[in-house]
Write a structure and sequence with these properties.
Elements (H helix, E strand, L loop, with lengths): L7 H7 L4 H6 L15 H7 L4 H11 L4
Length: 65
């Protein structure tokens, strides 16, 4: 299960199908250097995104929601 404290890079590497979800929220995470050290919560905050909704959509994308 994906949670808001996981690094964006970790999620994208483990679940490549989440890339489209991140992109839909305006997070171009696949090529972003910040993704190497930012967790989902930090990335969402910087971009003004509701983290709980993002995490729910990420988990739905990987069949864990």
């Amino acid at each position: 299960m994906i949670n808001k404290n996981m690094s964006i890079d970790e999620v994208v590497k483990k679940y490549p199908e989440t890339i489209s979800i991140f992109e839909r929220y305006g997070l171009g995470c696949a090529g972003c250097r910040a993704a190497l050290f930012e967790n989902i919560k930090q990335g969402a905050k910087v971009h003004g995104i509701a983290v709980d909704t993002l995490v729910e959509d990420l988990n739905n994308a990987v069949g864990k929601g």
